[in-house]
Amino acid sequence: MHELELKLLKSIATRYPTIAAAATEIINLQSILNLPKGTEHFLTDVHGEYEQFNHVLKNGSGSIRRKVDEEFGNTLSNKDKRSLAMLIYYPQEKLDLVLKEEDNIEDWYKITLYRLVQITKRVASKYTRSKVRKALPKEFAYVIEELITEKAEVQDKEAYYNEIIHTIIRIDRAEEFIVALSNLIQRLVIDHLHIVGDIFDRGPGPHIILDTLMKHHSVDIQWGNHDIVWMGAAAGQLACIANVLRMSAKYGNLDTLEEGYGINLIPLASFAMEVYKDSTCDRFAIHYNTDYNTKDLNMDTLMHKAISIIQFKLEGQIIKRNPEFGMDDRLLLDKIDYEKKTVRIGDKEYAMGDVDFPTVDREDPYRLSPEEEHLMERLRQAFLKCEKLQTHVRFLFSKGGLYKIFNSNLLYHGCIPMDEQGNFEKVKVFGKQYSGKALYDVLENYARKGYYDVGDGKEYQKGQDILWYIWEGPHSPVFGKDKMATFERYLVPDKETHKEKKNSYYTLYNQEEVLDKIFKEFGLNIENSHIVNGHVPVEQKKGESPIKGGGKLFIIDGGFSKAYQGKTGIAGYTLVSNSHGLRLVAHKPFQSVEDAILNETDIHSDSMIVETKQQRLSVADTDGGKEIKETIHQLEKLLKAYQEGIIIEKFDE
Fold it and tell me: What is the mean pLDDT of residues 150-170?
């Protein structure tokens, strides 16, 4: 036996010091391999819509209602099943209503507790007792375990369980117990959650979504371009800060920054009202919803214009600093003819809708004015010192990445940059060329450097610039377009200039051979792998399908954000992967939590099975199963080492 292998086995022996201990663990792990695979839940492009996000998360995209249907079948009416499901989603809120309306609350408690115990048994059945035990709420752990575990030694089981429930009600703990059981069901129905990008922007509550995700038992996140720009802002990258502020102003969501994160925007408001008070701002209208307080409209419009002009300047500085980004076509401030009120884009001149830019120096248009420099430094410090934002962004770095491989699924937000022939685009990053997986890896590496400030100052600056490039660079895998035409959409009325050409990936992803090439690039088996993708809303109302490439790729951005629902016709897709196969769910718009609780109106969702496994998947078929098999292999080696006397057992004295 090699010295290194012996050292490893001795390390394992500290946890399993005897033959009996090692053998017991082998038996335990072997039995786990035969349990059904846990259910995975995929969501993407939630864009701050926290109420709909929380509802979909709570019901597991219909998984809880399906468990209720499976358990009770025709023994309960649809009304009763709907009411039970809603109780599981919102236990405390539903209980508050029941306590006001129910005449015989003791009977209701008794019936409800029995039903919840039955559902808990069903959802816990695919896990080991140890895993279920870890999920149990501490205050009720023993009682719940008694109720959901068969007691072979108890002769009159019905009387035994009846007495437990009767006692819970008698000592006035039923309400807390119902809440605990409901939360446990939510916890056990979904084993693992995937967020395939774009938590931020558009909607009002990305901070609420992140608070929820930080409490989730098992989650990973693939960064979207809207996440990256906030991550860059948290890193103090000035162009990213300007973009975050501009989009928040544009969509009437400055409250997210001020109230959600406590970032002081008075310096920006003061600057805008002083510098732009006499400026025309017609091109910088606010796209607000019914929650927006219109008393702020004039100030927000001024702030919107002020930060947009600063953004164009800061982005120009990055582009000039990094010629290999190939973004010189985005340098437009120096192409403006103020007398003719035109701008040269490419070889053509276009009329501009606004050339009233009081802070732009025509001789040096990308230089910030002293006042703008002072403002941006104050904003940079505000972002850097915002404890809540920094906590959320560190969570995104710890739980996230630009892509993830999980149980034969490749998850990424945008695309694999390709040319028209289906070859991976070669992209130069600081003097070296990268493509495919290597491009993802190098961009993520620099993004981390740009936040954590590792290495020398040059590497940090590169990382800062890459954070911005990932947001809107022409070869960025999470952006996937030739340009972000922000300047044109604001300032050039001719819509010809607003067009953003998508990467060739989006015309090639229906070809199975192209997807097979991607699988090989990322080391996946082409026979049983899938790609789960977000970023580009699927326009269901035009008949577009989210299923591409013969069922090998799923684009599950269906318009979670209200801003996209008019285009898509729905309110988001989600994907559920369980031991039986894959289920794609299309959601209708969510009205409100209040409506859901009062009227028991769940989100109406159209669900379709997109893949059924002939043989039910077990833990052995998962990535976790591979790790368990390797652990078993090492334990068997340890067992042999004990038996041959290479390692000596250690018994407690």
Answer: 79
Beta bridge partners of 583: 576, 609
How far apart are the C-alpha atoms of 534 and 224, rounded to whole Å? 8
| Global pTM exceeds 0.90 | yes
- Alpha carbon 495 to chain centroid distance? 33
CB 60 within 8 A of CB 602: no
Q: 166 to each of 163, 185, 269, how far by Cα in Å? A: 5, 21, 61
Specify the range with the lowest mean pLDDT, choosing from 55-64, 297-306, 335-344: 55-64
Interacting residues of 633 by C-beta distance below 8 A, sequence separation 6+: none
Tokens of 283: 């091109």
| Residue of 442, 452, 375 whose CA lies nearest to 403 | 442
Nearest to 45 by CA among 574, 649, 530: 574
Contact 536/477 with Cβ under 8 angstroms?
no
Strands 553-555 and 530-533, how do they pair? parallel
The secondary structure element, H or E, covering residue 148 is helix 141-148
Q: Residue 415: is its pLDDT beyond 60?
A: yes
Q: What is the predicted pLDDT for the residue at 102?
A: 86
Lowest mean pLDDT among 210-214, 323-327, 609-613: 609-613
For 245-282, the pLDDT digits (tens) are 999 999 999 999 999 999 999 999 999 999 999 998 99
Report the SS3 class of residue 193. Answer: strand
Q: What one-character DSSP code corresponds to residue 650? A: -
DSSP state of 102: -
Q: Are 492 and 351 in contact (CB under 8 A)?
A: yes
- Res. 148: pLDDT tops 80: yes
Q: Which residues pair with 502 in a beta bridge?
A: 481
Number of H helices, E strands in the chain: 27, 17
> What pLDDT is attached to residue 146?
87
Which letter, b or e, does each residue of 215-252 get, where b requires 16 or more Cβ atoms within 10 Å of its Cβ? eeeebebbbbbbbbbbbbbbbbbbbbbbbbbbbbbbbb
Rg of the chain in Å (alpha carbons)? 28
Output phi, psi for 617, to 5 deg.
Answer: -75, 140
Contacts of 373 (CB under 8 A, 6+ apart): none
Instruction: State the residue for tokens 């839940």.
Output: 41
Average pLDDT score over residue span 524-534: 92
- List the structure tokens of 516: 């097979």
32 vs 26: CA distance, rounded Å: 10
- Pair 434, 427: CB distance under 8 Å: yes
In 10 A of CB 336, how many CB atoms? 19
Q: Are 35 and 131 in contact (CB under 8 A)?
A: no
The H or E element containing residue 381 is helix 370-384
Residue 402 to residue 240: CA distance in whole angstroms: 18
Q: CA angle 34-40-41, nearest 5°? A: 165
Quick one: how far is CA 212 from the chain centroid?
11
What are the tens digits of pLDDT across the range 364-399? 999 999 999 999 999 999 999 999 999 999 999 999
- Whether the CA torsion 553, 556, 558, 559 is positive or negative: it is negative
At 599, the pLDDT band (50, 70, 90 cuts) reads confident
Which region, left, alpha or beta, applies to residue 289 given φ > 0 means left and ψ of -120 to 50 means alpha?
A: beta
